[in-house]
Every structure is written in C-alpha cells, then in structure tokens.
Amino acid sequence: MIQCLFLLSDAGDVILEKQWMGKRVERSICSWFWRQRSEMEDQDPPSVIASPTHYLLHIVREGVTFLACTASEMPPLLGIEFLCKVASVLENYLGGLNEDILKDNFVIVYEILDEMMDSGFPSTTEPSVLKEIIAPPNLVSRVLSVVTGTSSSLNAASPLATSSQVSWRASNVKHSNNEIYFDLVEEMDAVFNRDGFVVKCEAYGEIQATSRLSGMPELSLTFANADILHDVNFHPCVRYRAWEADQMLSFIPPDGAFKLMSYRVKGLKNPPLFVRPQLSSGEGICRVNVLVGLRGDPGKPVDAIIVQLPWPPSVVSTNLSPSVGTVTYSFSTKVSTWIIGRIPKDKSPCLSGTLQLEPGINRLEEFPTFLVGFKIQGTAVSGLKVDKMDIRNVEYRPYKGFRAVTRAASYEIRT
Amino acid sequence: DIPTLLDSRYDADKAQGLKRLIALMAQGQDVSTFFPQVVKGVASQSLEVKKLVYIYLVHYADKRPDEALLSINSFQRDLSDINPLVRAWALRAMSGIKVRAVGPLVIMAANKCARDPSPYVRRCAANAVSKIHSMGDEQHFDELVQLVSILLNDNYPGVAGAAAQAFISVCPERYSLLSSSFRKLCGLLYEADEWGQISLMDILMRYIVAKYGVVRDFSSANVEFSCLQQAHEENGGDFYKADTRSSFPDERWEVRLMLSSTLSLLRSQNSAVVLQAAVIHWYFSPGNELSNIVKPLLFLLRSSLDARHVVLANILSFSKCEPSLFEAYFEDFFICSSDSQAIQTLKLDILTNIVSDFSATQILQELEAYIRNPNSQLAADAVNSIGRCALRLSSTVAICTKGLLKLVVSRSSLVVQAVSSLRAIMQKHPAEQDQVILHLLRNLNHILEPTAREVVIWMIGEQAIARPALAEGIPVALRYLAKTFADESNGTKLQVLNCLAKVSFFAADLYLTEKIIQIISSSQRCSSLKTVLLILQYILDLAACDLNYDVRDRAWILRVSKLDPGVLSKAANSMFLRQKSVPVLPSLSLQTSTFLPGSMSH
Questions:
Q1: Within 13 Å of residue A299, how many CA atoms lie on the same side as its CB?
Q2: Which of A18, A234, B121, B265 might form a disulfide with A238, Cβ 3.0–4.6 angstroms?
C-alpha cells in the first residue's frame, strides 16, 4: 500500500505531501532520496529504490519529482503507474505541471490526491469522473468567485458518472458542436552503424483522440493495413473481441482527450534522413566532416532538423562551421548542437572543422553517437492508414478530423 | 484570522478558512489544534464545506480520536444523505477513526453501505473493510469476512475489484469464498478498472495455486523456474504435455478460464496490469502458449518508459530460465544513448542470456560498437559480456578470442576486462590456448595495468603445466619477469612467485625423468630447465628482501618446500598444481532469480 506521496521540486524541496496511512512518514526520507540521486551524477536512479525503512518509487515530470513511499509488499508497477496517472490528471486539471502551478493550487491538488487514493490503494482515477466530483479551476470560476464571493469546487448534484453503465463516460454528456478528432502521433527510432547501414528502424505511434460527442456514441474504426502492426495496446474502452476477430476498433469513447491505442511497427526500411560522419584523427587533432541529407521521399517536408554531437571527454575544444544552419557548443556538457531547420533544395548541409584533443592523446579512441531530431507534419511514417470510421447510436452527424505527425525519438548515428 | 473565518456564520468564510488549513496541511504543517472548530463545520449544509471538513477529519482522526468521536452522530446522519458522495465521505471518516470502541458502529455503517444502490458507495465500503481490519480487532473478523464475500459477489466490476483488495488485506487464505464466484470474477475481469484488475488477478492466481499446488516452494535458495515444468509433471500427471494436447482435462477448467480471461489484459495500457497478466501466464501456461507474453512485455519497454527498469528486471529472470522465448527479439535489447546505467547493465545481461547461433554475429557486432562508446563503464561491461557470450556459445569462441586479443593491445583502459574474459574462456576451452598465450606473452611488456599482468602471469603458470609446446617461450618470459620483478606491484610479485613455483615443480619433475631416461635430444631441454631453476633462485633471493611481508613469506615457503623433498614439497605440489574449476563470469546486475517475478524484489 502506498503510504504517502511527496512532490519535490528540482532542487529537492518538498512542495506538497499527502499521507494516506495514519502513521506519518517523516520528511527525512526525501532528503535520503535526494542524496542518492545526487550521488548518481547526471543519471536517473532506478524507479524503485529500497531505503533502510521504505521502498521508494518515483517518476519525474518537468522537473517535479513524484515520490511515493511504501513499507509493504505490492507490485512495484502499480505504484509507478499510479504516479503516472496522478501526473497526467494534474496536468489535465491545471493545464501544465511545474512548481509554480502546483504552489498556486494546493487545495485542488490535495483534493484530487485524496479522491484518487483511498487508504493506500488507487480508487477513482478517471479524469472525467474526477471532474464531476472536483471542478477544475478555470478562469470563469475564478472570476465568479471574486465577483460574487462564493466559490464552489463542487457540483451540488450527485455525480452521474458514478451511476452510468461504463465507468469512463457519464450518461448525459451534451455538446453543442459534435466533433471528434484523431491525431496519429508517431516517433521514429533508428540506429545507423558506422558504415551507414541501418541496424534497426521502427516507429512507435499513439492515436490520441479528442471527443466532444453527446450521448453514448458507438464508434468503430478500421485500418487499411492493420497487419503491419507488430504490437498494440488499447484504452480500456476498446472491445478486445472485435479486434481479435476482424481487427476493428469498437469502442464508446470517454469524453474529452484520451489515448485510444498505442502501437509499434518494426522493420521499417525508410528512415527519412541520412547522416554521413567522417572522423579522422592524428597528432592531437581530429578532422570532422558530417553530411546530412534526405533519403527516400516521406511525402511531406522534413522540418526542425537538429543534430546533437556529444563529444567524448578527451575533446577539449571544437572549431566547426556549417554550410547551412548554426552550430553552438556547450563547454559544460561538451555537446555541439547543429540547428538546420529545413534542408534547402540547392545546398546539402555539411558541417566541417576540427576538434582539439587533450594533450597526450594522439588519436580518438572513443567514438561518439550523434542524435538527430526532426519533425514531419502531415504523415505517419510507418504507413498506417485509417480506412473508415463509423458512428452509431446517435442522431447527429459529427465532424471527424484526422491528423498525423511524425517526430524523431531515438535516431542515433554511430561513428 | 483562520479561527475567525472558521467561526463565521457564512459558508464562504468557512470554506476559505478550511482551504487555508488544507493548504497548510499539504505543506506538512501540523494544524490539528483547530480540530474542535473544524469539527463544528461538519453539520454545515454546504457541500463544499462538508467536503473540506471531511478531508481534514480523515487526516487527523487518529490523532484526536476522542474529539472525532463527538461528531459520530453527524457522521451517522450523513450516512443517509441523498448524495452518494456524502455517504461515501461519512463512511471514510468513520473508518478512519481507529478507536476500538466504535468498531461495531463502523461495521454497521459498512454493512449498510455494502448494500447501497450507488456503486461508488459500495466501493468505499470495500476500502473501509481493510481499514477496519487494520485496527487489529479480532472480534469482528467474521463479520468482516461476511462483508467481503457480499462485496465480491457484486455485479459491478469496480466494486468487485475493490473487494478483491479487501480480500487480500483481511483474509487472504479464505479460498472457499472464491470457489463459488470464480467464474463470475473471471468474467468481470475485463470490465473492471485497472487497479481492480490487478487485485483480482492476484487473488485468482493465489486461489489456483492453493487449489492445485503447482508452484514449487520458493523459499529454497536454489530453485530455478525451469524446474517448474518438472514440478508440474510430478504433481499433475499429464498437465503439461504441451506438444500432445491442446485442451486441459476437465478438472483444470479453472486454470484454463483464468488464462483465457487474462489473455486480453496483456493488451492493456497499464503496465502493471500487463506484467501481472504475464506473470500468471508464466506460472501456468503450457509451454507452447508461453510465447504469448513475450511481445506485450517487449512493447512495454517502449510504451511505458518509467516502467522500463522493473520490466527489464523481470525479463532477466524469465530469460534465465527460458532463453528461447526471447531469442528472436534480441533487437529490442540494443542499448540507446539515453539509457541509464542500471538499464544498460540489465540489457547487456539479457543479451548474453539469449545469445544463440542465429543471433550471435549481430549481437557481437553490437557489443563491438559499444566498446567504441565514450562511456567507459559501458565499454567495460560490453567486454565482460563478450566473455560471457563465448562461455555460453562454443561456436563464438574463435571470434571472441580474436576480438579480445586485439583489445588487449589497442585499448589500455579495457585490458583488465579483456584479459579476465580470456582467462575464463581458456579454462573452459583448453584447445584454443596456444595461440592466445603466445600472443599475450609477446605483448606482456605492453600490458601495464597490474591486475591484467597478474592474470596473464597466472595463465602462463597454469598452461606451463599442461602444454609443453610452450616450453621454449617460458624461459624467455621468465627472464623478462626477473628483470622487471623489482618494479612490479605487490599483487603481481605474488603471482610471479606462484607461476615460478608451478613451472619449477613441473620442470623439476621433468628434469628428474629426463635424467633417468637420458634422451639426447633433451639436452636442449635440460639447459632450459637449468635456466628456469636459476631464475627461480634469483627471484627467490630478490623476493626475500622485498618490502612487503606477503611476498617475503611466500618466497620463504617456496624456498623451504624446495629444499625439503618430503611432506612439504608434496603439499606445495598439491597447492600449486591442482586442477582449477572453470570460473563463472558473474552477471553484471543483481541476482534475483530466486524471488518471484512481479514482486517488489525485481
């Protein structure tokens, strides 16, 4: 059972604490945790650590550390998933998640935490249900409270979400404009070895939906090429049998924004960018030449291209100049960042220059791994296509929208 | 000003005061002195004030139980309120007061709420049961068990989930409660909320274990999961003849039902649910269906980044027992630059466990790429892993030794790992030794790291006994060592003495036998034997004057044992010339295979 939860700032100070069991857990556990963390230098400690008195589970979101303590046996992932849920609910409610926002909204946060966990075990965690019980702070209600002197963070009526047939949707949702949007957000992971060949290339994607539909609509979504999906997992609202039988997503959507499914497509052959690095070293100097270009045709322009070049510790200084874009070097982290933006049609971006090695080291023995970032708006690079989407059980015709975007997640080039 | 706000007539002021109190509470300050004033507000009509008062009360109820008791009447009145939220809060507050005197009252309240029309209140009742039980009062145990069984039979999946949790805390051994509702609970599994699913799976699994006893007792230290299959056959007869049957015998229908109900949960978005379902399948699934858990587990590594560490630790345990499950998916364990140290070691361990003939070249190429990585810890671990791969798969020994020998010369920072790995490989595969030892001998002057030198010298000593083909090289090496003896580190000096002892014993034996046989071609050998003995004498003299007492002692023992031909020399013989066992290169991360996967130990 989770005994307590601390929210820590990025300096290790306790912003908020919530205790669920009668016996109070002392704050000294936070300073113990912080000491462990600083001992690990710039790496993250494992999510589950055993201190002399408790097990500590933690996640980090935007600099705020969510730290949960438990003294009894429980599945560790239960704690971690709960912390993730807390973080996403708070972000949903407060519109963002950082130290200042939390400090402005102590009471709401405390009420949410109180409702989400009952005596150490997670209780109500669906955002739509929580919103019926605890109204989120927004500008209108703040203004109202100042003007009329009353502020109510509660609905006087009993929450209908607690009595509907499905636990994630209230039975009387009403919207004036009925619409539903689907966003295919993909991330591409690729590893290139030093000869320029692809070691591994795969895409991880999520379908994020925003639904503003009235009543209890029944949706069904089919894909044109569902067999390319290697792995999938679904929101609890999706009926598993329909997927098993015909690869059709059949579900009653929760109201608002939710993640419908996440999937992975492996063995892709079309990474959109190539990077050709050449490093030759001798006599304390290393000559660098890095070429970046498009390969294949993703169909839409590739934007926001940025290359991170983290140099090994034996490099003392760099002298690099790009043909397109700008290069900045950070002395503290020894990372050069090359911002290209979009590749122009006539020039191919090329970075050349020299690196100064530490005195005493003649040749480069360790070879860095470059990280590439990019964004492609409008296309899902895995090739997944939505075939059609039907809505039943409603009298209106809603507006349906689809969007796709691809980003680079862990796109590595070995040298 | 907080007291004035709390005492005011207006609800808005009261709410404001309470909010300030709660803000202070959230920051950890103790505001229990306001208890009497806050408690007065419990009778307020405003929902908001009520809610805030209840939050405060639940937090401080066990610190000020007597004062909380005073408002028991208003709690009981609120238990019959129209609004289900209010009923739930009242029950929560009552069960939070941990005073034995009110135990019966609270149980009555919980009983009433267990039959409430609103599922939210019923769920609250289930949570209250665990709280009441934690008071430690044994008198009401039967009533509590009764409550648990009523709630377990509820039709609403959310309530059943919370009841499962209550079952775990109150009466985890009462499997009789579950036998009647087993089928129903399996049916509710998919519709319950995520947390309920975890508790339900837990109790269903324990029920099956208790009924069929298929799981071995894990308290013995040397149990490996691969024994599970045998245990099943002992216990259940033809339970696990996976290749011949596709359906279970009728009396095992419960296992079958549980497996099929949890199959869909492997696709949940909640990583805790997926892992729990995977653990159930791991324990009970017949061999050919076990592969169902592999893809969902691997997907977790990408979809839930916070859960990676725990999932990898569990996969490590699985891969130790059944490497074949993960063999085809080795790509998922390649290391990204954003992985933390702990995750890197786990992935390397898993890669060495699952290496097979099919994947060996690609995995070794990956390990080679990691050796070039600027992260020195990763490079060292990768060298270790190459050694372990070679120990596991004999087909890779040649490639690994070649690679490791190259490293010995080129990368001074990795020499220690390279040489240790080579030593382990040599002990397991003596056939490859000649080339390796000769190569190392030639490069001995390049290897500067003392630990590495010690290992090489030890290897020379060991092999001299077994491989006379090296006899020409040994005196040269010994001469070199004699020259550098004074400058070596203490550990290296000890190793040199050991090596000399072994060589000289062997040489002495050979000398004696040669003398007896008087073979002419052995004249050359005789001279090299004499050289060896001379060098031995020289080094023993040097060592006798060494600054370090360990070195002096060992030299003294060797000298004495050489002089005395009887017992001492035999003892020295057995000490130095014994057959050494093949070392097991330790795995890089913690050993957890004796603990249950899915639990906190991983």
A1: 11
A2: A234
Q: Do A236 and B193 touch (CB under 8 A)?
A: yes
Distance from CA of A123 to the nearest CA of B (A): 8
Contact residues, chain B, for A232 at CB < 8 Å: 267, 299
Please give the pLDDT value at position A206. Answer: 92
Is the pLDDT confidence value at A152 over 60?
A: no
- The C-alpha of A345 sits at a distance from chain B's nearest C-alpha, in angstroms, of 31
Residue A186: band (very low, low, confident or very high) from pLDDT cuts 50, 70, 90 = very high
In chain A, the number of structural domains is 3
CB spacing of B28 vs A123 below 8 angstroms: no
Cross-chain residue pair B303–A110, CB shorter than 8 Å: no
pLDDT of residue B577: 62
Q: Is residue B458 part of a domain?
A: no
Q: What is the DSSP letter of A96?
A: S
Per-chain mean pLDDT for chain A: 83
From the list B131, B158, B303, the residue facing A167 with the nearest CB is: B158
> Does A161 reside within a domain?
no
Judgement on whether residues A229 and A287 belong to the same structural domain of the protein:
no
Range of the domain at B584: 466-515+523-594
User: Does A66 have pLDDT greater than 70?
Assistant: yes
CB A300 within 8 Å of CB A342 = no
What ipTM goes with this model? 0.88
Total residue length of chain A: 415
CA B476/CA B479 separation, integer angstroms: 5
The answer to whether the Cβ–Cβ distance between A107 and B23 falls below 8 Å is yes
Chain A residues whose beta carbon lies within 8 Å of the beta carbon of residue B309: 46-48
Residues of A in contact with B600 (CB under 8 A): 48, 55, 73-76
Range of the domain at A201: 179-269+381-410
Same domain, A262 and A286: no
Whether residue A160 has pLDDT greater than 60: no
Gyration radius of chain A's alpha carbons: 26
Task: Give the pLDDT band (50/70/90) at residue A161.
Answer: very low
Residue B27 lies in a domain: yes
- Name the residue facing A75 among B25, B276, B334 (closest C-beta): B276
* Prediction pTM value: 0.85
Rounded to a whole number of angstroms, the CA Rg of chain B reads: 36
Q: Which residues of B touch A369 (CB under 8 A)?
A: 337, 373
With CB atoms and an 8 Å threshold, state whether B372 touches A233.
Answer: no
Q: Tell me which residue in A48, A109, A259 faces B269 most closely, judged by beta carbons.
A: A259
Among the partner-chain residues A133, A233, A236, the one whose CB lies closest to the CB of B303 is A233
Lowest mean pLDDT among A43-47, A322-326, B23-27, B122-126: A43-47
**Does residue A169 sit within a domain?**
no
Distances (CA, A) of B245 to A141, A239, B248, B289: 65, 30, 8, 12
Q: Quote the pLDDT of residue A156.
A: 43
**Strands, E assignment, A193-301:** 198-212, 218-223, 231-234, 248-251, 256-265, 273-282, 285-294
- Per-residue pLDDT, B221: 28
Whether residue A141 lies inside any domain: the answer is: no
Positions of chain B with pLDDT under 50: 215-248, 516-522
Give, to the nearest 10 degrees, the angle between helix B271-284 and helix A76-94.
160
CATH of the domain at A44: 3.30.450.60
Chain A CB within 8 Å of residue B329 CB: no
Half-sphere exposure of A248 (CA within 13 A, CB side): 12
Q: Is residue A151 pLDDT above 50, yes or no?
A: no
Query: What is d(CA B198, CA B177) in angstroms, rounded to the nearest whole number?
Result: 19
Question: Are A64 and A197 within one domain?
Answer: no
Q: Which amino acid makes up residue B7? A: D
- Partners of B359 on chain A (C-beta within 8 Å) are none
**CB of B129 within 8 A of CB of B148?**
yes
- Using the predicted structure, report yes or no on whether residue A45 has a pLDDT greater than 80: no
